[in-house]
Amino acid sequence: MIIDLPPTTAQIVIEQAEQQDMTAQEWLINKIQNDYQPKDMLVTDF
Questions:
Q1: What are 1-46's pLDDT values in tens digits?
Q2: SS3 breakdown of the chain: % helix, strand, coil, rounded to 5?
Q3: Which of 44, 20, 42, 43 is nearest to 31 (CA)?
């Protein structure tokens, strides 16, 4: 029996990184740096 499961987060990251010709680590770092907005941080995050 084959169950068609949705892709995991890791699979999505790896696929996105491969499409952009970079490693998964590079893709994640770029994504975090590009999406990070200081206003998103709350005092309760500390």
A1: 788 888 999 999 999 999 999 999 999 999 888 887 776 666 665 5
A2: 65, 0, 35
A3: 20
Collapsing DSSP states into helix, strand and coil, what is residue 35? helix
How many structural domains are present in the chain? 1
CA distance 4 to 31: 28
46 found inside a domain: no
The verdict on residue 21 lying in a domain is yes
pTM over 0.85: no
Distance of CA 8 to the CA centre of its chain: 11
